[in-house]
Amino acid sequence: MDNFENWESTLLLSIELLATLAFALSGIMEAARKRMDIVGVCVVGFLAAFGGGTLRDILLDQRPFFWVENEIVMWAVLALCILSISFMRQKHFELTEKTIQWPDALGLGLFTASGVAQSLAIGLSPTVAILMGTITGIFGGVLRDIVCNEIPVSFKDHRPYALCSFAGGLVYILMAAAEAEPWFCMTVCAVLTTLFRILAILNNWLLPAWRKD
Amino acid sequence: MDNFENWESTLLLSIELLATLAFALSGIMEAARKRMDIVGVCVVGFLAAFGGGTLRDILLDQRPFFWVENEIVMWAVLALCILSISFMRQKHFELTEKTIQWPDALGLGLFTASGVAQSLAIGLSPTVAILMGTITGIFGGVLRDIVCNEIPVSFKDHRPYALCSFAGGLVYILMAAAEAEPWFCMTVCAVLTTLFRILAILNNWLLPAWRKD
Amino acid sequence: MDNFENWESTLLLSIELLATLAFALSGIMEAARKRMDIVGVCVVGFLAAFGGGTLRDILLDQRPFFWVENEIVMWAVLALCILSISFMRQKHFELTEKTIQWPDALGLGLFTASGVAQSLAIGLSPTVAILMGTITGIFGGVLRDIVCNEIPVSFKDHRPYALCSFAGGLVYILMAAAEAEPWFCMTVCAVLTTLFRILAILNNWLLPAWRKD
Q1: pLDDT digit string, tens, across residues B170-198
Q2: How confident is residue A2, by pLDDT bands cut at 50, 70 and 90?
Q3: For residue C33, how many C-alpha atoms fall within 13 Å in the half-sphere facing its CB?
Q4: Which of B129, B106, B128 lies closest to B118, judged by CA?
Q5: Which of A79, A121, B32, C194 registers the highest number of CB atoms within 10 A of its CB?
């Protein structure tokens, strides 16, 4: 029984770690494209991985930050930064970018679910909780792009990213209103958000653009 | 009597709503100019409308945020974003920009007054209170411009905007030192800041530039 | 005895003031290069001087901010901004930039030491404390560059700046582990960080670049 629970929590931590590393890699590659040095690569990697959750914790006035409580994740991101600088070359970027789309979708799902859950836990309204879920999911990437002096890609590429997170958050709220257990809401929200994002990638869904007239 | 008070608070909420929507519109149009998608338009609209007040609340460690307490304003901004995307075209921008200058001046006045009042209420010094009033008034626009990858327009257009807010805050402090009632200080500060800004626009006042030698 | 203590604390305040003014000057000059107006110059000057410490205080959830407690430093930075706009011309920039390298190194040392000390004082782990020390030291410059619409110079110039701060923080932690007195850890950390930075400037040390293949 104990063994099973250990196995379960190890699995959960592994999934979280995988998703966080995917977020970090997106930062590392953008920093590399901008020809930043090792400091820039590490900072942008950390921002992409931890920026969304940290902003959520600041907005919700929650301390300690989640990365303060799980230092192992910080060490893993730091190791990834140093490994990337040592071994990654520009020719690897295209393949890496295609590969990290999948764990990145997982991260979007997990971060959205955690953001909504934490907001509801401290008594915020459903609307604000959905907003916080989306902020948790997308602001790592937004901060990454701001520091790299770019318009955030999730604001202008016309691909559903924030909207997947928003839709997942909405499902969470509806299930919570139907009095489902929190752990069940979280799982469904994370899985559905990830699924929405994967469908969006596979089907090349596009958001409507502004008309030019 | 009760009817009168209701009428009064409805008027106040309407003014606030008008000002907030003017701030949001400035964000929506800048996002549109940058060809952002619907997510970018909404985020930049929200940042322009709520960024200054949220930053003030973070700096003062105040929770809940004012938009958490007045969800109606959030819904109004969201509706404005969606309406703008559906119906606004580039040919409308010039007229819209000229029109929102006036409610925007109102917003500058209201936000400045609220920032100063809230700082004094938690016991901060007059100097810091003026600073917080100005931050509340201008940082919505500053965050909007940073996300849109521009140098903040209020830092480089040589037109008095932050200075109007600063001057209004100073008047508040002087009146508070003369022991005027808070509601009276707030009203005078909001009206004067708005008036300064309107005079600056009408008279085309310019701040001194750096000499080029 | 009393006289000696007064003399000591006056010296400490003078060093802090000098370092803060050096940070502010770096902001003022970058704002001037971007042709900002007086508002922009003041805001960027303040951000460069107080941004790192303020971000640290937000992350650690500490209030009041250090500049709220020492208003004299705020007034000094404001005076510096106004003096610079009145008397500084572009021909002075090169000399000023060379000159402020030294007090800037001092600021890096002092801010790093204060960041580490404050983090340990509220019970954070050594790893997080080093991180907070580095954030305190470098994020004033990072925020300055973001507002000026540049990639932060400390992320891409391949010169050790954040790394000096990181190394100094590491020394602090090692000494604290050996149970040295806090004031002694702080002094050694500040002096060593400053020294590392000065050596890096004098010897033109460079961080390794990404290989281009």
Answers
A1: 999 999 999 988 889 999 999 999 999 99
A2: low
A3: 19
A4: B129
A5: C194
The pair of structure tokens assigned to C100 is 């402020």
What is this model's ipTM?
0.88
Token pair 């300690």 is found at A64
d(CA C170, CA C176): 10
Identity of residue B185: C
Q: Report pLDDT digits (tens) over C75-90.
A: 999 999 999 988 877 7
Q: Read off the pTM.
A: 0.91
Confidence band for C195, pLDDT divided at 50, 70 and 90: very high
DSSP percent split of chain C into helix, strand, coil, nearest 5: 80, 0, 20
Would you say residue A199 has pLDDT above 60?
Answer: yes
Taking the C-alpha atoms of residue B187 and residue B193, their distance in angstroms, rounded to an integer, is 10
> Which DSSP letter does residue C150 get?
S
Contact, C56 vs C142, CB < 8 A?
no
Inter-chain residue contact C35 with B207, CB threshold 8 Å: no
Q: Token match 């931590």: residue? A: A13
B45 vs B39: CA distance, rounded Å: 10
Rounded distance between C-alpha atoms, residue B102 and residue B92, angstroms: 17
User: What is the predicted pLDDT for the residue at B101?
Assistant: 86
- Which residue numbers of A have CB closer than 8 Å to B's CBs? 58-59, 61, 124-125, 127-128, 142, 146, 149-152, 154-158, 161-163, 207-213
Distance CA A187, CA A178 (A): 15
Containing B125, the helix (H) or strand (E) segment is none
Q: CA-nearest residue of chain B to C40? A: B155
Range name among B10-14, B77-81, C173-177 with the lowest pLDDT average = B10-14
Question: C178: which 2 tokens?
Answer: 């050996």
**Mutate which of A35, A36, A37 to disrupt the C interface (most C C-beta within 10 Å)?**
A37
**A201 close to B79: Cβ distance less than 8 angstroms:** no
Q: Does the bond joining B64 to the residue before it have cis omega, within 30 degrees of 0?
A: yes
User: How many Cβ atoms from other residues are within 10 Å of residue C34's Cβ?
Assistant: 17
CA of C12 to nearest chain B CA: how many angstroms apart? 24
